[in-house]
Amino acid sequence: MNRYLVILLRKPHVEPAMVSAHRDFLAELRVQGRNEMNGPFGDGSGGAYLLRANDLDEAMAIVQRDPASVSGGWEITIHEWQAS
Length: 84
Prior knowledge:
- The protein has 84 residues and is α+β, with helices and mostly antiparallel strands.
- Helices cover 37% and strands 36% of the residues.
């Protein structure tokens, strides 16, 4: 599996219930072995997670199910990460 860095930047009006749903989604990905690590940015502007997927299409499909994506409360970018 490949690694994908998913970066989420908060938009001005984030619904608080979506934050909890997003965290639950990340926990489920961890159980599945798909979320290698995650966390918020220190300045409160958003966060990131390291997703494991077979390819970019699969990574995008997973991220599209994230409540953060579904709610539209965050700007989300995905980058294949070739860490050494």
